[in-house]
Design goal:
CATH architecture of chain A: 3-Layer(aba) Sandwich
Largest sheet of chain A: 5 strands, parallel
Distance between the termini of chain B: 80 Å
Number of strands of chain B: 4
Oligomer: heterodimer
Number of helices of chain B: 24
Shape of chain A: globular
Helix content of chain B: over 70%
Mean pLDDT of chain A: 88
Number of helices of chain A: 5
Radius of gyration of chain A: 16 Å
Order of helices and strands of chain B: HHHEEHHHHHHEEHHHHHHHHHHHHHHH
Distance between the termini of chain A: 28 Å
Radius of gyration of chain B: 23 Å
Strand order of the largest sheet of chain B: 1-2
Helix content of chain A: 40-55%
Number of domains of chain B: 1
Structural class of chain B: mainly alpha
Low-confidence stretches of chain B: 1-39
Shape of chain B: globular
CATH superfamily of chain A: HUPs
Chain lengths: ~140, ~525
């Protein structure tokens, strides 16, 4: 069976480490990689009528920026390593959306970087710890 | 002569966008007397005297009294109530039977996960509500109760329920006939459904539609200067003076100063494009609304024993009021008028705010919009009225021109420091309502005059001038003008809605049968399976 990884990308150092790790794993068992970037967004946020008017336009811009600036370099790196890779950008609650994408694309495993380990992060919980709590897939957290 | 020509040439060039506002600002400041200190009071009076005749004239047309059982009922109220009753009957009590489904829609059960990042039903409703929940709920209710007694509350609630059907119709149409531009922006409202919707019915209807759309746009601009602006500035200033010591307050008679400050803040958002202010307001306003509701419920809770008798007074006062001019019909008018002014059902303004929602089925936004009059009038206005009645703040001799002060006194009788919170809430509500209405007005303005930087700027500066005027005027003239212009919007809007009812019916029937047959995807059902 083909191994398919979903790696969460936020453009930070910790997601760099996650990418390094997932490329290695994918190379070992000739898997493919889905790089996902989630734009934090809530369906219950408050906005002005003027913002609503331009919302669709801004959403397209945000997705384009995510694809071009965040995902494109990562996908290029993955493909340079000789691995089949694809990028995907979406709006939503970061942890919930990653879990949804993992399910939709039927991935074998989720790989995430961990952002710091300060007491504040421990108290509020990180994206990685939230995903651990709600996902139905195996998950690897890269420190 | 030479000077004016050179000015015109300058205006024809690119300097126009700057020239027009600065000219208007100059005109505004020329109203200021040379010796400001000595003439503060007379300045307020001067502006008041300047606007009052126009305000009175407009009011006399819109509120043309029609004799009903010996009492003159303003024509526009009959117009609004008849439409609300017709819509409620035509859609077989959509206002009640779709409430549960509306809640599911707002909760996001039917949101498409692949459309995340678009405007949700919740956001469209919240945006529309921040334009309607405001002074109407605080000051308007106080005016209704002080003039008409507790019974006015009953008619207000009833009008709120009926108004839900009007909102349903106009918001469904707002989405159905909205414009989706190539650059990805979305905007809609009565001016579009009146012109596009009626055009579908044939060439003679197309002309009628265009006339109605233009009329609507003109009245909407007027309403954005009146109820959406001057009334807000006026009443929030009244509350500020009241809480800082009434006639002995250093602010007393300095309405123009308050107006200038508010105009500066509004200007920073609508002209300066400082989105952070708008964003902060859009988050703080729901928070303040929650505090207001909780405080109201707390006071009602403290006086829970008085609630049955308060409802008794509301019911008996509704049908057999004592000492109210016009008796039963007089009270009915007051209640309906304040409800309409508060939730704007039938006026058409909300259709502009709701139309940016992401949905493939226009009728879903109509169903969501049912909650607007429900929250605004049935919930919030009732809480205000109950607080005024059970705290004993209202009595038959209360000064009817008190407005927001009556509500403030009612809250203060239980929570002594609450007037300060109320003042903050009033100013913020007024501010967010102004931002919303400046948008409605601007959309109408661009519908009439086309989109250009110069004409946009002209509208925005005019809007700010009216903030200052509103803060400086006496209550009577302001309320007269603001009511008149907002209610005038209901004439073209509802007339067009009658013609477009079959369109809404088709949309509703198709949607409802899909819903009942389980053909609509609900995230919740998937989870349950």
């Amino acid at each position: 069976m083909e191994t398919k990884y979903l790696v969460g990308i936020d453009g930070s150092n910790c997601s760099e480490r996650a990418i390094d790790y997932v490329i290695e794993r994918a190379r070992e068992n000739s898997g493919e990689i889905l790089a996902a970037h989630v734009i934090e967004w809530s369906p219950y946020a408050f906005s002005t009528p003027e913002e609503n008017e331009h919302r669709h336009q801004r959403r397209e811009q945000e997705l384009a920026r995510a694809r071009d600036e965040v995902l494109a370099p990562v996908v290029e790196r993955i493909q340079k390593a000789g691995i089949a890779g694809e990028g995907i950008a979406a709006h939503g609650h970061v942890a919930k959306t990653l879990v949804r994408l993992a399910k939709e694309h039927d991935v074998t495993c989720i790989v995430l970087g961990r952002k710091g380990s300060s007491r504040l992060v421990q108290f509020f919980g990180s994206v990685a710890s939230h995903v651990v709590q709600i996902t139905d897939r195996p998950i690897t957290v890269v420190p | 002569m030479i000077r004016s020509r050179s000015l015109a040439q300058w205006c024809a060039g690119k300097g126009c966008a700057r020239a027009i506002p600065s000219l208007l600002v100059l005109t505004l400041f020329s109203l200021l007397p040379v010796s400001v200190v000595q003439a503060q009071d007379s300045l307020d009076e001067r502006i008041d005297n300047l606007v009052r005749p126009a305000a009175d004239w407009v009011s006399s047309i819109i509120f043309y009294p029609i004799s009903l059982g010996g009492v003159g009922v303003p024509f526009v109220l009959i117009w609004l109530v008849v439409a609300a009753i017709v819509f409620t009957a035509y859609f077989r009590f959509i206002n009640l039977r779709a409430l549960k489904h509306g809640f599911h829609l707002i909760r996001g059960d039917y949101n498409d996960p692949n459309a995340a990042g678009e405007v949700t039903h919740f956001q469209a409703l919240a945006t529309a509500l921040s334009g309607t929940v405001g002074l109407g709920n605080i000051a308007g209710v106080a005016i209704a109760v002080s003039l008409g007694g507790p019974g006015a509350t009953f008619w207000m609630i009833l009008a709120g329920f009926l108004g839900m059907s009007s909102k349903f119709v106009e918001c469904t149409l707002g989405v159905k006939y909205r414009n989706e531009y190539p650059d990805g922006t979305v905007s809609g409202g009565p001016m579009y459904y009146l012109s596009k919707g009626l055009a579908e019915r044939g060439p003679s209807f197309a002309t009628l539609g265009k006339v109605l759309a233009v009329l609507f746009a003109i009245f909407c601009i007027g309403g954005s200067f009146g109820g959406g602006n001057m009334f807000q500035a006026n009443q929030s200033f009244a509350q500020l003076v009241n809480v800082t010591g009434g006639e002995s307050s250093w602010l007393y008679g300095k309405g123009w100063l308050f107006g200038l400050i508010v105009a500066a803040a509004v200007g920073m958002v609508i002209i300066g494009g400082i989105r952070s202010i708008a964003r902060v307001t859009s988050r703080v306003v729901p928070f303040m609304a929650t505090i207001y509701i909780l405080a109201g419920l707390t006071i009602i809770g403290f006086n829970i024993g008085a609630v049955p008798s308060a409802f008794g007074a509301i019911l008996s006062g509704a049908f057999s009021p004592e000492g109210v001019a016009g008796g039963f019909i007089g009270v009915l008018i007051l209640g309906v008028q304040r409800a309409a002014f508060s939730n704007e059902a039938g006026v058409g303004s909300a259709a502009i705010a709701h139309s940016a929602v992401m949905t493939k089925r226009p009728v879903t936004e109509g169903i969501v919009a049912l909650y607007e009059p429900f929250i605004d009038t049935v919930v919030v206005c009732t809480i205000t009225a109950l607080v005024i009645i059970i705290t004993g703040t209202w009595n038959p001799d209360v000064d009817p021109s008190a407005g927001v002060q009556l509500t403030s006194d009612a809250f203060a009788s239980s929570i002594s420091w609450f007037p300060w919170v109320l003042t903050l809430a009033v100013v913020l509500f007024a501010f967010s309502t102004m931002i919303s209405w400046s948008y409605y007005g601007l959309k109408s303005w661009t519908y009439l005059f086309g989109e250009s930087k110069a004409s946009d700027m002209m509208y925005k500066v005019l809007f700010l001038v009216f903030v200052v005027i509103g803060a400086s005027m006496q209550l009577g003239a302001v309320i007269g003008f603001s009511d008149a212009m907002i209610f005038a919007m209901a004439f073209p809007n509802l007339l067009g809605c009658y013609f477009l009812l079959p369109v809404v019916k088709r949309e509703l029937n198709a949607y409802w049968s899909d819903l009942k047959a389980g053909r609509l995807l609900s995230s919740r059902h998937q989870v349950e399976e």
